[in-house]
Amino acid sequence: MRFWGYDSALEASFFIDEGALRRIQPDARPDESGFLNAFDCNRDVICAAAAKVYVRGSRGSYDLVAANF
User: Fold this and answer.
1) Tens-of-pLDDT digits for all 69 residues of the chain?
2) Whole-model pTM?
3) Contact 12/61 with Cβ under 8 angstroms?
4) Judging by beta carbons within 10 Å of its beta carbon (0-12, 13-18, 19+), is residue 43 exposed, middle or buried?
């Protein structure tokens, strides 16, 4: 699942993989709706992990995997 974060006027793209979503919500249904729900229910945790990997101006895209959680 791809989402975007903003640092002032800078936009950064993030990708969270299925393994990461399963780590933060093991009972998520393995379909689009289940993963979207897992993302929505754990948005604060996901944003905190994204903030940890983000480096201003470093690159345009960041991957979040199970190890980030």
Assistant:
1) 999 999 888 899 999 999 999 999 999 999 999 999 999 999 999 999 999 999 886 777 999 999 999
2) 0.86
3) yes
4) exposed
